[in-house]
Amino acid sequence: MAPPPAYQTQRSHSSSPSQPSGKSEVSDLKLQLRQLAGSVAPGANDSKRELFKKVISYMTVGIDVSSVFSEMVMCSATSDIVLKKMCYLYVGNYAKYNPDLALLTINFLQRDCKDQDPMIRGLALRSLCSLRVANLVEYLIGPLGSGLKDSSAYVRTVAAVGVLKLYHISAATCIEADFPAMLKHLMLNDRDAQVVANCLSALQEIWSSEASSSEVASREIDTLLSKPVIYYLLNRIREFSEWAQCLVLELVAKYVPSDTNEIFDIMNLLEDRLQHANGAVVLATIKVFMQLTLSMTDVHQQVYERIKAPLITLVSTGGPEQSYAVLSHLHLLVMRAPMLFSSDYKHFYCYYNEPTYVKKLKLEMLTAVANENNTYEIVTELCEYVANVDIPIARESIRAVGKIALQQYDVNAIVDRLLQFLEMEKDHVTAETLVLIKDLLRKYPQWSQDCIAVVGSISSKNVQEPTAKAALIWMLGEYAQDMADAPYILGSLIDNWEEEDSAEVRLHLLTATMKCFFRRPPETQKALGAALAAGIADFHQDVHDRALFYYRLLQQNISVAESVVNPPKQAVSVFADTQSGEIKDRIFDEFNSLSVVYQKPSYMFTDKEHRGPFEFSDELGNLSIGESADSVIPVERVEANDKDLLLSKSEKEESGVSGNNAVAYSTPVHDASSGPLVALDTQPVAQAPQATIAIDDLLGLSFTAPAPAASQLAPPPLKLNAKAVMDPGTFQQKWRQLPISISQAFQMAPQGVAALTTPQSLLWHMQGYSIHCIASGGQAPNFKYFFFAQKAEEPSTFLVECIINTSSCKAQIKIKADDQSSSQAFSDFFQSALSKFGTA
């Protein structure tokens, strides 16, 4: 029977299987699938394939085809692997959102997990583990256990990843089924390298997640970093895929060898990995080499020499994206040791067909490697880029030339070239050059005559960029005595005050006019009056405040105003770096990661939940591990003066300086016998009984009574039990029950941080003070310890979580105690003991 005309028309408009015209298409598919279910007729599988393709295409474009779920499952009873794959794809997509439908798939997936074809067994197991339905985890245990023991390497590979999926669905079920132990056995004994790699990846993720709550997991992580396991993986590294090699190398980078012979053994094993064609493998190997030799200065330098050639080869052979990633790591190394790369500067020249982001990175590297021997060649090359049609690169080139000049290399020739840039009469070149000349004059004032002669010929009307106009105005004010037209140029700019949009330019204009007035008063007086009037009426708060400030200074005393606005200046010796050394060290610690590409530590661009076991806040020193935000007490911080930092603990107690983070103030004592500090004609006012009260009230500390003397505050000495014992279970129970008494961050001595190259040494040191370690872990630059201690006179315990960051030389402690009143005394004792680590 022929379909009705309306239906024929509807079907004719549906020219693509991915664009069904209505529900009738899905209903039609459902009917056809039901007719083909269980069919063994010749060509039935081909018909099923076509129908499955339509279902998948509809699903791909977002059309709901969940109504054919039962029919798809019925049609999957076949040996055709293509149909199996499409069915598994469909089931995995809808099972997550329809748990009830997912139950229908369990039987046929479990049956397929026992199929004779290992490919079908593996695909079925992968699909079964991908259902991600918590109610169905009990059905995964049997197939996963069988899969880990399967004779096919492919099935074992899938099963290893399946264990990790099970862990994320139900961690307790995974641990109770003892799957981590089975993965560990496979990792150490399986013949297939991919199985070993998948087991290693799954174990690392599982144990890292469990480490915060399980002592067993912490010990297993230590086992992964033991010498037998590391050597076993290294000896098989050539069998692994590129991804697996990177995984193993990341693990090796965390390993701490026992002696130098072991370091050289590992480096010899990995020597050929530096010639690998894959950039990720090369970078991971370089990270291992650098981490192993950090404490060996000479060898570390030789590592730099050795890794230059592989990195430069990767930069020149890969595509622009790979080149940029490798170049970012090379840039980091160049910034740390520019002298070692100074002879390779030609490798950093820009090619015409390179993307702008690659050229910018190369310009930074050319600036870094410049020295007395290569400055002329580098500056000559950079000057060629100034005329580039790519305006951002032209700007960066001028800045690079200026940075080299500020490093005091070949200043004479560079200044001449910069002045030639002004003759090019290109707006962007003129703008960048003016900004650069201003910085050069701040460092080399002796070049003012040559520069001002050229700058004075530039019309302010031709300079439109705010930063360039501000630089020109600064030079007009700073060198007004050498520029005949300076007052008149400033006057014309003031006349156009309302047309100037940039607050920065208006601020510079106010200051420059003041400076010009002090040098050439008759010519500038009228312009200064107009500038102050316009500034006071300005809508921008900073401009208004500065104009009012200058006006009142001039009202008070012109000489004082000149000493404030235009004091004698010294040449700038060093310009501030945009990144602190601590940030750079953190980036180096995260070598072979996105931190190097972004040029910022990971905590600056990752969410807290993705920062691993060590969770950083926005400030480097504030660490939080395994605690919710509500339970963490903010770290108290007090800015200590220089004298306080140099005092020992006993000296602090004698001088009344607080040795902890509690707030304490003391006023200097004046000996009346030495005469009055200031002679006054009035009668002396009786001194307040305690000067610190007023200061504390001013700071909002709400102290209402005089602080008692230091001798009255001193608590009795804290005595601890040297033979205290506590099992891990009791520690965990107490840690969950007790609130945090004290949370503090403090600076450690560099000697103590250096001694952490052998983390176990800290445990022995603290044990000498009757403070015992129950668990430890972490990797450079972050080490985490759990300590406990017990009072000698009573069964009162103290629990401590201590996190040490070796990059910032900071320690963060959280203390929980049975007796809250003695927490501060124990905190002082703990900090005193920790401060002595490495100094003996």
Automatic annotation (TrEMBL):
**What's the domain of life for this entry?**
Eukaryota
Q: Any one cellular component term from GO for this entry?
A: clathrin adaptor complex
Task: Enumerate the SUPFAM superfamilies for this protein.
Answer: ARM repeat
Which InterPro entries does the record cross-reference, listed alphabetically?
A: AP_beta, AP_complex_bsu_1_2_4, ARM-like, ARM-type_fold, B-adaptin_app_sub_C, Clathrin/coatomer_adapt-like_N, TBP_dom_sf
Q: Where is this region: Disordered?
A: 1-27
Beta-adaptin appendage C-terminal subdomain domain location: 718-835
GO biological process: any one? vesicle-mediated transport
The record describes the protein's role as: Subunit of clathrin-associated adaptor protein complex that plays a role in protein sorting in the late-Golgi/trans-Golgi network (TGN) and/or endosomes. The AP complexes mediate both the recruitment of clathrin to membranes and the recognition of sorting signals within the cytosolic tails of transmembrane cargo molecules.
Q: How does it assemble?
A: Adaptor protein complexes are heterotetramers composed of two large adaptins (beta-type subunit and alpha-type or delta-type or epsilon-type or gamma-type subunit), a medium adaptin (mu-type subunit) and a small adaptin (sigma-type subunit).
- PANTHER family xref list: ADAPTOR COMPLEX SUBUNIT BETA FAMILY MEMBER
Identification of the protein by name: Beta-adaptin-like protein
